[in-house]
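check this:
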Amino acid sequence: MKHYRLTARCIPGSQANGFTLLEVIIVLIIIGIASGLVGILISRDRGSTELRTFTKDISAVLRYARSQAVSGKKTYCFVIDREDEGYIYRLYADSGTGEETAPLLSRPVPEELEVVMDGNDAGTLSVEFFPLGNSSGGAIEIRNRKGAGFLILINRMTGKLKIERPE
């Protein structure tokens, strides 16, 4: 009497499980193409992310200046200077002695961004915050190279900020 060994191929309705080498290679190629496209999309959005982050940083400094002016009973001045290497923004507090003081904060504006204050992009631009909560007022426009941007409006009477998209 002969004995037969039953394998998966011999049993009707059963199939061997697994993937062929060709199927694995095709899936790896698809994953590679998809990850490349995601990288391109992320790098394309980098400018707008930097624009939003910088706008939030500037508005935080302006709000800080207003709150410190009210609580400390001092005048605070936010200044944007255009220098050879680009824009730099600084925050000064009035010492009350009339002497020039060192900035409390001094940071560069990212190279990819342009800052325009009240429609004027030359020289020194400034906003003052006074002890009563009011300010000298103004508008700061921050734009990237693609033309997208934000407009920070500073109310003259209340010193409060409003952020909008320019039209």
Q: What stands out?
A: The first helix runs from residue 21 to 72.
